[in-house]
Specification:
The complex is a heterodimer. By secondary structure, chain A is α/β, with parallel strands linked by helices. Chain A is built from eleven helices and seven strands. In chain A, helix 1 packs antiparallel against helix 2 and helix 9 runs parallel beside helix 10. The longest helix of chain A is centred in the first third of the chain and has 17 residues. In chain B, strand 2, helix 5 and strand 3 form a beta-alpha-beta unit. In chain B, 52% of the residues are buried. Classes of the chains: A alpha/beta, B alpha/beta.
């Protein structure tokens, strides 16, 4: 992940390493290169701007010019800015309520249904009693897909009933309660953020079941529009976190920064493959380090 | 607005806004900067000049490679979740509406309920389908499909494949095998290999197309989800760098949501509104 960005920043460090002193002009040139590198990594433009301001301020404060290894100092500053943005401390999912409902939402094809299976498997391994349900009435065979995954990770699939997604979700939650499940993972249909009708629907679903966790599932290959996507889902369901999928595609993954910047919610997990065990905890420190190839 | 449609002499700020717009449409920072720089130097700098140079980046669109006789064989590839299966449903419908017979091969034997999903689309389109059991060898399904398509003289044969990330060596090898086997079953096939790219994808799409082209011989692109917030600006780089035409765009989840690619409209969508045009 983030390989290209590391390379570019490596070049920057290399260029500045030998410099006896760094002038304001050198700093500007470095920031311009960083800006290009971040944009190439699909960090949204407003987020890139924010980061560049941050780095400039911190760099001036740290008197980079007088340091022995100005390149390293600037990169350390960017590293810290990234780590700060990516969320600092990790927080566990709040599963105190019984049953707790975890709502998964996102764009079409982002990986919600697959992630539902992965998350179920993970929570089962932590001793939870988990069930899966889908309120996706749009995509052909969406529910069959989740049923197959439920079978693979050996948890029950609950079929909700009702005329709307919110009604189906409510009925599934009731059933989960009756069956004594700790957690119900609620998979939803994919939607575009410019589709008002479907954005209202997801808002309704989230409120109808009082979902304790509302997670945006986002394709790590998403470009600049990740910013708008995160903002819109946040305003619809008040997101409590994000899961980044398909990070195995050698993504530069600036989308992660866009989500963090625009919503402030933690990225909790990353998908690293198609199989149900290809799922890892997100680690902001490690991720920031990875961006910089450290 | 200036009569005659050219909007010249934009201010520095306006140019910056245009460049920002291109970047945020996923055209890429380097390319966006270069395009604006070039346009500003030409003819006093106008959006028209910019638009022209953007359109000229797109390759001349040659007609689809259709066979003189026998079925037209289309292989559909791409990374996970881009919209391959849905697009096949739409394309099959289009061919059916032209009165052609269509056979679809379900060579995604891996993903949960992938075959069931395709079956729904095939039925909606009024096409026929070749399927095997879950976990079957995708190459075997492709082979069967082509053999049957030729034997029964279908007009169009389409092979759906599983999504795969371009970094997965094993799965990319599998795709290469699918392609080889298609040619083995019918030497002039596949006539076209279309890679489906999600219109919301960022710069990663360049690596995707590079790899898929190498492995599967991509001959055209389909850009999906342009009904969403993604503008698909990455297509500019893809088309230019690899000389690949965009054959169709996806604009929704129903059978009708497939459109022919219109270069002029596409480029305009990446630029600020120009009421003078
Ligand atoms: N390589 C890889 N593929 C993934 C990952 N997560 C999901 N996928 C694949 O992405 C594709 C789409 O996944 P789905 O789970 O169907 O996506 P979805 O968001 O439920 O899609 P819709 O319900 O249609 O909106 C499938 O091919 C999955 O196997 C991941 O982390 N890595
Ligand atoms: N809004 C919108 N959604 C689309 C479009 N094309 C496909 N989709 C949706 O995207 C999701 C994924 O589509 P699929 O056809 O399953 O994608 P795929 O490439 O076959 O996925 P895998 O086989 O899992 O790799 C589905 O929810 C589709 O309805 C489009 O043009 N616009
Ligand atoms: K996607
Ligand atoms: Mg789904
Ligand atoms: Mg598919």
């Amino acid at each position: 992940m983030f390989n290209r960005l590391s390379e570019k920043l490596g070049d920057i460090a290399h260029k500045l390493r030998g410099a006896a002193r760094v002038s304001e002009a050198d700093l500007d040139a470095t920031l311009r290169e960083m800006r290009m590198a971040l944009l190439e990594a699909d960090v949204a433009l407003p987020v890139t701007r924010h980061l560049m301001n941050e780095v400039r301020e911190r760099a001036l404060g740290a008197e980079v010019a007088k340091s022995l290894q100005p390149g390293q100092v600037i990169i350390k500053i960017l590293n810290d800015a990234l780590a700060d943005l990516l969320g600092g401390q990790r927080r566990d999912l709040d599963l105190s309520k019984i049953p707790s409902v975890i709502l998964l939402c996102g764009l079409q094809g982002a990986g919600k249904t697959t992630t539902a299976g992965k998350l179920a498997r993970l929570l089962v391994s932590q001793g939870k009693k988990v069930a899966l349900t889908s309120v996706d009435a749009t995509r052909p065979a969406a529910r069959e897909q989740l049923q197959v995954l439920a079978g693979q990770v050996d948890v029950p699939y609950i079929a909700g009933e009702g005329g709307s997604a919110a009604a189906m979700a409510r009925s599934a939650v009731k059933q989960a309660g009756r069956d004594g499940h700790h957690v119900l993972i609620l998979d939803t249909a994919g939607r575009q953020v410019v589709d008002d009708e479907l954005m209202n629907e997801i808002r309704d679903v989230a409120t109808a079941v009082g979902a304790t966790e509302r997670l945006l599932v986002l394709d790590a290959m998403t470009g600049q529009t990740a910013l708008q996507i995160a903002e819109q889902f946040h305003s619809a369901v008040n997101m409590s976190g994000c899961i980044l999928t398909k990070t195995d595609a050698d993504v530069r993954g600036g989308a992660a920064l866009s989500v963090a910047h625009s919503t402030g919610v933690p990225i909790r997990y990353v998908g690293t493959g198609e199989k149900v065990d290809a799922f890892e905890l997100f680690d902001p420190q490690r991720m920031a380090g990875r961006i910089l190839g450290q | 607005m200036v009569p005659g449609g050219s909007v010249d002499a934009l201010s520095e700020e306006e140019w910056i806004d245009i460049e920002d717009g291109l970047i945020m449409a996923d055209c890429g920072a380097e390319l966006s900067g270069a395009l604006v720089h070039k346009a500003r130097k030409r003819r006093g700098g106008s959006i028209a000049a910019l638009k022209e140079s953007m359109i000229s980046m797109l390759p001349e669109v040659a007609p689809v490679n259709e066979p003189a006789g026998g079925p037209f064989v289309l292989l559909v590839v791409g990374v996970n979740g881009t919209g391959k299966t849905t697009t096949i449903g739409k394309i099959a419908t289009m061919f059916r509406q032209q009165g052609k017979s269509v056979l679809v091969g379900a060579a995604d034997t891996f993903r949960a309920a992938a075959v069931e999903q395709l079956a729904v689309w095939v039925e909606r389109a009024g096409a026929d389908m070749v399927r095997q059991h879950e976990g079957a060898d995708p190459a075997a399904v492709a082979f069967d499909t082509i053999k049957r398509g030729v034997a029964r003289n279908y007009d169009v044969v389409i092979v759906d494949t599983a999504g795969r990330v371009q970094t997965d060596r094993g799965l990319m090898d599998e795709l290469a095998k699918v392609r080889r086997v298609i040619t083995k079953a019918y030497p002039e096939a596949p006539h076209e290999v279309w890679q489906v790219v999600d219109g919301g994808t960022g710069q990663n799409a360049v690596m995707q197309v590079e790899k898929f082209r190498e492995v599967a011989g991509t001959s055209g692109l389909i850009v999906t989800k342009l009904d969403g917030s993604g503008k698909g600006g990455i297509v500019l780089q893809l088309s230019h760098k690899f000389g690949l035409p965009v054959r169709y765009v996806g604009v929704g989840e129903t059978l009708e949501d497939l459109m022919e690619f219109n270069a002029e409209e596409f480029i305009s969508s990446l630029l600020p509104d120009q009421s003078a045009d």
